[in-house]
């Protein structure tokens, strides 16, 4: 598993595309948070990273599929999947190795943004940021990155075309993140809308971002990750 994990993130950083994707992610977050007037944290008047934690999931919707689209699609296309299957590795080891390798890449993109918290803290004249909420939000962001990674690897297992894998992965992440909340707002659903909203990733991401780590949120994220890992494993078995 760890051999696959190492190969995955080394392959991503072995090309210029990987570095460009991470630079664009960090550049966009920096521009939105400190330059663009409509979203600049400097114009809020109080120390808060809420704007960043609202923006980051939407950027991850595109960054994660970029990272994962080659995970298995390239293996199929290049014919190296057959070589991979000759190794003493189970399908589960291949899948979890791919997920772990891609997640390390996503974590590498998220961790440098901690400097935003230190920046806002140092610029604050009174009080400072809510440390508990900020830590919870970063935990939620990492869980979100792990879920999107699992979905992206699953999308990559469906095709040998990396562009199709990117589109399918981004679409699936969007539907699971925002789709349930959008459906829950339909007037015809009434009180049932709340339970439908609970099925979406966004509900649990916002819940854990409050700084209170609820076991139900962790179980939800773990369940989604395992579900898509099992689907991916099933797709490999069909091959």
Automatic annotation (TrEMBL):
Superkingdom classification of source: Bacteria
Annotated membrane topology: Multi-pass membrane protein
InterPro entries: ABC-2_transporter_component
Database matches in Pfam families: ABC2_membrane_2
Main location class: membrane
Membrane-spanning parts: 12-35, 55-73, 94-118, 138-155, 162-180, 218-236
Localization per record: Cell membrane
Keyword entries, A-Z: Cell membrane, Membrane, Transmembrane, Transmembrane helix
Identification of the protein by name: ABC transporter permease subunit
């Amino acid at each position: 598993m760890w051999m696959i994990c190492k190969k995955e993130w080394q392959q991503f950083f072995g090309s210029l595309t990987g570095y460009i994707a991470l630079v664009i992610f960090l550049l966009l977050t920096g521009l939105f948070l400190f330059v663009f007037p409509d979203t600049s944290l400097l114009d809020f008047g109080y120390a808060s990273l809420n704007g960043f934690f609202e923006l980051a999931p939407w950027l991850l919707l595109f960054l994660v599929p970029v990272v994962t689209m080659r995970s298995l699609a390239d293996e199929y296309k290049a014919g190296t999947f057959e070589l991979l299957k000759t190794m003493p590795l189970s399908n589960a080891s291949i899948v979890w190795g791919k997920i772990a390798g891609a997640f390390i890449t996503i974590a590498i993109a998220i961790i440098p943004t901690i400097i935003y918290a230190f920046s806002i803290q140092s610029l604050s004249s009174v009080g400072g940021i809510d440390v508990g909420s900020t830590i919870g939000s970063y935990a939620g962001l990492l869980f979100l990155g792990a879920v999107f990674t699992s979905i992206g690897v699953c999308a990559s297992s469906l095709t040998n075309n990396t562009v199709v894998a990117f589109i399918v992965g981004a679409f699936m992440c969007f539907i699971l993140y925002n789709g349930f909340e959008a459906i829950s707002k339909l007037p015809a659903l009434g009180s049932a809308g709340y339970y439908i909203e609970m099925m979406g990733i966004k509900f649990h991401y916002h819940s854990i971002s409050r700084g209170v780590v609820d076991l139900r949120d962790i179980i939800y994220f773990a369940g989604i990750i395992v579900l898509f890992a099992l689907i991916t494993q099933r797709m490999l078995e069909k091959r």
